[in-house]
């Protein structure tokens, strides 16, 4: 693994920097991307710093993307944040620059990049970017906008500081960030809000939950339910943690129908490592929070069976 100093040297070297993140972004992807970008812009006003990626959906209150022409990549430094493997990088022009850096907190299953900084102990990629900025001295400058973005990323990926990866260091960094000028309580309330139809989908999850005696749980969300509630696959992310609120649920699967067919699998656990299971089904992620894919309901049931077997082992 490379050092913060080596990354800072490359940031100092290039006049044009393009920052990518993963597709279907969450607050951590956008927060780490924007937090890094604003700190570079503040320290180096003459540098061009651009944000690359697809639509941010209903997270446009946190960040928006830049329109980037192909000719802006040659000679540029490209930094990819919060993205474990290359197929998940949003905007596949990431490899068209002069130098590529990976900064991430997921297991390093795809060690791409000229430089790599991967810390799987960090609660979030936003925490890593906060540490990078704090280590930089005058070479990066944290702004109010950047602090807001990084705080949102940390809150999002720690489940409001409830997940196991939350450490005293995470909380200390969060305390530093809310010392900047932004409305942290309002941001927390905004991140906790769901629509009425998302609340109805949570009700559907509870109503149709299959719970095994060993604490494994499964809910399948069909396409017709999403259509009836006028929700997208991305909107369904609001219910991923829902089964974990139930006493006795130790690990669970939420299978969400994809528009093109098949199912997006959300795996969560409070007891056993599940990213190895996700890897068996075209996925991966954190030890206790991962994503995968299933071609049909047969594969969904296979994943649920394998999850039960992990809890019994």
UniProtKB/TrEMBL annotation:
<dbReference type="InterPro" id="IPR003156">
    <property type="entry name" value="DHHA1_dom"/>
</dbReference>
<protein>
    <submittedName>
        <fullName>Bifunctional oligoribonuclease/PAP phosphatase NrnA</fullName>
    </submittedName>
</protein>
<feature type="domain" description="DDH">
    <location>
        <begin position="16"/>
        <end position="154"/>
    </location>
</feature>
<dbReference type="Pfam" id="PF01368">
    <property type="entry name" value="DHH"/>
</dbReference>
<dbReference type="Pfam" id="PF02272">
    <property type="entry name" value="DHHA1"/>
</dbReference>
<feature type="domain" description="DHHA1">
    <location>
        <begin position="228"/>
        <end position="309"/>
    </location>
</feature>
<dbReference type="InterPro" id="IPR038763">
    <property type="entry name" value="DHH_sf"/>
</dbReference>
<dbReference type="InterPro" id="IPR001667">
    <property type="entry name" value="DDH_dom"/>
</dbReference>
<dbReference type="InterPro" id="IPR051319">
    <property type="entry name" value="Oligoribo/pAp-PDE_c-di-AMP_PDE"/>
</dbReference>
């Amino acid at each position: 693994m490379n050092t913060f100093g080596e990354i800072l040297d490359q940031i100092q070297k290039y006049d044009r920097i393009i920052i990518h993140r993963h597709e279907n972004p969450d607050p951590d992807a956008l927060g780490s991307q924007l937090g890094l970008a604003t700190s570079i812009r503040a320290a180096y006003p003459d540098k061009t710093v651009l944000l690359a990626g697809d639509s941010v959906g209903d997270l446009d209150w946190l960040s928006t993307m830049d329109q980037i022409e192909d000719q802006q990549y040659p000679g540029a430094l490209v930094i990819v944040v919060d993205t474990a493997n290359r197929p998940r990088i949003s905007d596949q022009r990431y490899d068209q620059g002069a130098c590529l850096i990976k900064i991430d907190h997921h297991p390093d299953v795809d060690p791409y990049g000229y430089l790599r900084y991967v810390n799987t102990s960090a609660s979030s990629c936003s925490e890593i970017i906060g540490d990078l900025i704090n280590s930089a001295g005058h070479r990066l400058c944290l702004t109010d906008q950047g602090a807001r973005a990084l705080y949102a990323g940390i809150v999002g990926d720690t489940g409001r500081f409830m997940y196991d990866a939350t450490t005293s260091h995470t909380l200390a960094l969060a305390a530093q960030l809310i010392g900047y000028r932004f409305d942290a309580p309002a941001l927390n309330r905004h991140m906790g809000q769901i629509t009425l139809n998302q609340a109805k989908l949570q009700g559907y999850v509870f109503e149709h939950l299959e719970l095994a005696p060993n604490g494994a749980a499964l809910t399948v969300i069909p396409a017709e339910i999403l259509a009836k509630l006028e929700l997208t696959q991305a909107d369904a992310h609001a219910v991923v943690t829902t089964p974990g609120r139930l006493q006795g649920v130790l690990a669970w699967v939420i299978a969400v129908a994809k528009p093109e067919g098949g199912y997006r699998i959300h795996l969560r656990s409070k007891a056993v490592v599940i990213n190895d299971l996700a890897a068996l089904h075209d996925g991966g992620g954190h030890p206790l929070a991962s994503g995968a894919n299933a071609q049909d309901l047969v594969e969904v049931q296979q994943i649920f069976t394998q999850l039960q077997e992990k809890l019994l082992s």
